[in-house]
UniProtKB/TrEMBL annotation:
It comes from Hyalangium rubrum. It catalyses: 2 GTP = 3',3'-c-di-GMP + 2 diphosphate. Pfam families: FHA, GGDEF. SUPFAM superfamilies: Nucleotide cyclase, SMAD/FHA domain. This is diguanylate cyclase.
Amino acid sequence: MAADETRVTKIASINIKSVANRDCCLVEIHGPELGKKYVLDSEDYTIGRDENNNIVVDLDNVSRRHARISSRQGRMFVEDLGSTNGTYLNDQEVLSAQPLRSGDLVKVGGSIFKFLDGDNIETQYHETIYTLTIADGLTGISNKRYFLEYLEREMGRSHRYHRALSLMMFDIDHFKKINDVHGHLAGDYVLRELAQSIKRMVRREQCFARYGGEEFALVMPEDGPEKARVFAEKIRKLIEEKQFIFEDKEIPVSISIGVADMTPDMTEPNQFIKVADANLYRAKKAGRNRVIG
C-alpha cells in the first residue's frame, strides 16, 4: 500500500508540474501586487478590477474588464476590452490585438506587467525580481533603496581618497496639476519619459534614481561643483525644451534642481540629501524651473 501511495503522489506531482511550468507568464513590475507572477496556462486571460477576472488589479483607473491576453496559433496576444483608460504595449496604445514578445511591457491603468516567454522563463523571472530590488518599475531607473546604498558607498570613498562628490535633487514643477488636468496615466507618462530622457545623459559611473513620487536624485562622483552645476543646467534646459505629448496633447514640463557638494563634516547620506533638498526648496521659492546650489 505504501508503494501504491508513493506512485499516486508521483503522478500527481507530474500533472501539477505540466500545468504550472508553461513557457510564458506575466510579472507585475509596478502596481499593488509587485513581483507577483501569473502563469499563462490557459488560452484566455482577462485583466481588470472585477473579481471575476483571471488577474485582478484593484485600482481606480483600471476598468472592470480592462484587457485580455489570449493564445492564437502558438503566440500570445494582448488586446484592450474597451477600457476607459486604454491598454498600452511598450508605451503604445493597443488599438487592436497585438502579439507579445518576451520582455514586452503591458500597462493596464496604474499597473505594469512584464511578459516573459521562452525556455529559460524561471531564469528570466528571477532576473526580473532581482531588478525590482534595485530599479523603479515605472521609470526603469534606480530606486531609492539602491540610491541610498550607492550614496553611502561613494561618500565613504570620497572621504578616503579626498575626492569631490556632488548630489543633485530635483522634482517636476506643478506635478499635481499635471495629474489633475491630464490624468494619472499622463503623469506616469511624464515620469517615465523624463527619466528615460535624462538617463541617456548620465554616465555609467553616476547614479540616477527615482527618490519618490516626482522627485529624482543624481549622484556625480569626482565632477566637482562647477561641472555639477553645468550638468544640472543642461538637464533643466533639456526638460524645458522637450515636448511631452500624451494622447495628442502637449504637456508643459519643467523641473527645479538643488545641487550640493559633500563637505568633510557629512558622514551620513541623510545629511547630504538634506542640503541638496534645501537648495531644491530654494529653487522652488525663487520661481521654479531653475538650478540652485
